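Hi C.,

You asked whether I'd gotten around to modeling the 564-residue construct. I have! Everything is below, sequence then structure, no commentary in between.
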Amino acid sequence: MKQMLSSLMILGALLWLAPDARGEAAKTLYTCGMHPQVIQDHPGNCPICGMKLTPIRNGAGADAASSSAIAVDAAMMQNMNLRTAEVRRGPLRRTIRTVGNVTHSEAATVAVTTKYRGWVVKLYVDSTGQQVHRGDPLFDIYSPELYSAEAEFLAVSETNAGPDATSLRAAAADKLKFYDIPDAQIASLEKTREVRKTLTVTAPIDGYVMEKMVVQGQMVEPGMKLYELVNHDTVWVLAQVYEQDLPLIRLGQEVLVSVTSLPDAQFRGRTAFVYPTLDEKTRTATVRTEFHNPGHLLKPGMFAKVQIVSELDSSAVLVPDSAVLRSGARNTVFEALDGGKFEARDVTLGVEAENAMIQVISGVNAGERIVTSGQFLLDSESQLREAIEKMRGPTRPAAVTGETTAATNAPTAGSAPERASSQPESGGVVYVCPMSEHVSIIHEHPGNCPVCGMALVPVTPAMLQKLQPDGTVLYYTCPMPAHAGVHEEKPGKCPLCGMTLIPVMRSPTNSVTPKIETPAAAAVAKPEIKQHYYCPMHPEVVTDGPGKCPKCEMDLVPMPDATK
């Protein structure tokens, strides 16, 4: 702990006395060498340890004082072990590693039954697990119903006279087919002209006997399950995926499976289905994957290791996970500038990727360099500088940017300056689907609706209160607070800024009789709209009062009322 405090104290002294920070004299502050968090604007003793406070010299001018960049010389960078890496753009991939069980395909399972009552005279397949091929005999059965049907077929076949002979013969043949007698046996019966006492039942598919419920001499009833045959040319692997990884699963993804009996081999398959329920104990969902099984190496019941490769984006901004400083509410990285300077940047993180990389949605761009090692000392100095700047007070007014309007656009000179942004307010902004059926799902980041795939739109907390799931749609409006005067009867685009309109809905009522919404009642339900002004050349510049456009100096014009 003492070594850490000493490092921070030395770092603060070097940073504040850096050559590029020297300039005209500024206000002197005092701090404690043992407790750098103690900062005063007058000399004295530390209230914690009683040591005499020492002055902090800030030789930066007005421009340097307002800058958030931190200057570090080459020697200190080496002592701090500062390392940088370039922000790159690449594929966003995640590999889900889990376990699963090999099982037979339900689509390749066949039950052998009879459609008539009879007695099993002889068994050809008399054990479970035996492999059979399509057309192999399973058992011989005697049935009085089947014997009568064969005799009827021969009797009709011998009748050649009369116009109905052909139709009677076809009906007798269909009766035998309805009893599942193969065409080859019907042709043999017609050729030999002899009624056979027993019928041989054959295997309908290639596979293995998984269940055998018949013995020789047993009487069977129609519909009784005698054999269950399963084909193992295609098998299923039921993988267990945790619920936080379910958004990464897509149908048709490649899956790699390995088993302990073949440690050097991997089987390639595809995801086929995600079961709609989760296990309450393990908090996992079952994902069904399908595999071709040449040589029947994958046997049902095997324990398998599963890898599901998911590519979420072909080109995403990626940074090393070690470069991000997480403080709970904020995620910060330090950008390496020219001249040995570093600047803190707040970033919005996305999905963790492979190779210890993480997606950045906003905050940095591809090609910039960020600090990957030693940035915790920069973060400590950044917080120390922020505290000192607060003690010094503001040095100059905030600059007017292209996204905000100047304070001169305020309606009155005595009121506080109002700032209108071309985007919704950053604090508390969430994203919803513009479909009224899907507004019950709130998202923290932009993207597409997971239900319908439409692009999500940003809404403020005030607008979110107007989106009542299962409520009556009153009208569609723009998610921009400054464009709240846009009221449309149907979904579409905002005529002012082109953003997708979102529904404003009345809260659902619990009354039995539904309330009929009249045009007059809808007009009363709409909130009173305050007059706004915008620039015809730059529609994103919107204010609450008249003034000049900060971009082109044109006079702002009143916004048309879309309700008229």
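If it helps when you're writing up: The two ends are 68 Å apart (CA to CA).

Thanks,
B.
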